[in-house]
Design goal:
With 430 residues, the protein is of the alpha/beta class. It has a domain at 3-166: NAD(P)-binding Rossmann-like Domain (Rossmann fold). It has helices at residues 12-22, 40-57, 69-73, 87-99, 112-136, 149-159, 170-182, 213-221, 230-239, 247-251, 263-268, 275-294, 309-318, 364-386, 389-398, 400-405, 408-421; strands spanning 3-7, 32-36, 62-66, 78-81, 141-144, 164-166, 189-196, 199-207, 210-211, 322-329, 342-350, 353-356. Helix 1 (12-22) links the parallel strand 1 (3-7) and strand 2.
Amino acid sequence: MPKLVIVGAGSATFTGRLLGDLTTFPELGGSNVVLHDIDEGRLATATALGHRIIESAGFRTRITATTDRARALEGADHVIILVQVGGAAAMETDLSIPARYGLDQTIGDSYGIGGIMRGLRTIPVLLDVVADAAEFADAPTILNFANPMAANCWAMNDFAPLPIVGLCHSVPYTANYLARDLGIGRRELEYVVAGINHLAFFLELRHNGADLRPRLEALYRDGLSPAKNKVRYELLARIGYFVTESSEHFAEYNPWFLKKGRPDLISRFNIPVNDMLRRQELRVAEWRATEELLVSAERVQVSRSEEFALPIIASMVTDQVRHVYANVRNEGAILNLPRDCIVEVPCSVDAAGVHPAPVGCLPPVLQGMMEPHITVQRLLVEAAVTGRRQSVYEAAMLDPHTAAVLDLDQIWELVDLLLDAHRAVLPMLA
């Protein structure tokens, strides 16, 4: 049975979800699970939760925990990465300093100036993790959940001699939302999605062979689409394609919705500015609820989530073919995006690993929407790996949202302020 290592396991919500998924795969019974985190307190809580989940399900597996990363990775077959470098304080900084300049964000973890800063903090840590994995394990599969997904996976693919796969639940989550909006069973939807992480689009969306996009457009036109999804439905009405990432995320990825001095747009499209702060409060509440659960005798009810990590591992162990969406090196899967960038495409999985399916060319409007972000990712990886400060300025200058709000002097000044605020975790760029 495989050895599965979760790095950053102090994220109890994700760790609990993944261990719950593990218990739904009988073929993985007897697996060896190792939890690793640098925070002893959070690791202890996550470990206790893991034991409760396993015991509640009556599942046979061994869970151990360690703060020693090399020891955790020794002999690993699969490594799941959940790290968040800098924590909530760093993310609050990524939102608050740009806000002084009128540069509003909602989440700030993937694209935009917040995504750039998070990538600068995260990429060096991920490269250390995969270097240890290459040294202490025999070619493990790396399954990354850490954002900014595309930039992180790009860096690891460039500098790690290991199979790197990025995983995000935005495709199945969005499919669930669309099925609910349309009153159709989730399993009845037929779709093809492709693009880059958080900017992938439903190229096809059908039910019994019929195109569903006109029905979605009619929902929006008639005022029947969900209030929290106005940004995505507006884009659908404009270009005919539905994006996989949430409206609050997508609003900060482009120059159209978060305009300085335009509160009317925020109101019209129901955009939750600084929503990451609310999410952090929810995570604190979830953590407290977890701690309360652990002092009770209550059993934990588990069901399989929409995450792809455990289905991938099960397919690699048993050679049962499954189909997932994953973030992988392009290498021609999408013909009109750079071959070395990271794309999110349909994939099949078997004992040999994860295999991207060819998608062909994206419509020009989608290609044009993605290419600026791919350039920013390229510059971000360069900055994080080399410490070249100029690349950070250039990445910020080319980010669509930042460039739409700030002039060049403001962008450079903002970058300097953020790099100074994060100097403790960015010594190469201080």
